[in-house]
Amino acid sequence: MRALVFLLLLCLPLGAHANDWQALDAPGAVALMRHALAPGMSDPAGFTLGDCATQRNLDARGRAQARAIGAALRARGIRFDRVYTSQWCRCRDTAVLLSAGPVEAAPALNSFYADFTREAASTAALRALIAATSGRRLFVTHQVNISALTGRAPRSGEVLIVRMTETGTELLGRILTAP
What angle do CA 95, 99, 105 make, to 5 degrees? Predict the structure, then answer.
């Protein structure tokens, strides 16, 4: 019984209102998600993009958080036409564990944390990717990418629902499932 109560609590969105889930249905809505919990601050020096053993990765709580977010989405009948993900393992693993739609790697979602001189180019590439895609889309990426695009700093596993505007982004909702 305790395990069931704990699992149900994991699926409750923290700080989300009913309207936040409905924001996914707003015209032009796009979901931006920071990868699930991956303890630490950055990747180790000399990490290799294609080698998860050299990167900061999801821990057990992060994997559980990604599954819980996916379960919360499915419980509401929410699926994505496409889930785009950074090539970093913690993002890709989050996207796969969500089981919320077909997953596709997109370099425009890769982190620029190690080199902030790439911020403008990375943000422009993300805006272009959003503009070039359609349907219900989820973009799993990093805090720095989301902050550069929206001016907001999401928590691990948090989903920001935004609409692109001529001058930036409009926040439509936020969804956070506890790690």
Answer: 35
Computed over its alpha carbons, how large is the radius of gyration of the chain? 15
Residue 23 token pair: 């924001």
- Note the pLDDT tens digit of each residue in 82-124: 999 999 999 999 999 999 999 999 999 999 999 999 999 999 9
* Domain 2-175, second-level architecture: 3-Layer(aba) Sandwich (3.40)
Q: Residue ranges of the domains in the chain?
A: 2-175
Residue 179 scores a pLDDT above 90: no
pLDDT tens, position by position, 26-82: 999 999 999 999 999 888 888 999 899 999 999 999 999 999 999 999 999 999 999
Place of tokens 């935004």: 162
CA separation for the pair 143, 17 (Å, rounded): 22
Strand partners, 147: none
Model pLDDT for residues 68-82, shown as the tens digit of each residue? 999 999 999 999 999
Whats the size of the chain, residue-wise? 179
Q: Give the integer Cα–Cα distance in Å for 96 and 100.
A: 8
Q: What is the pTM of this model?
A: 0.89
- Measure the CA–CA gap between 28 and 88, rounded to whole angstroms: 27
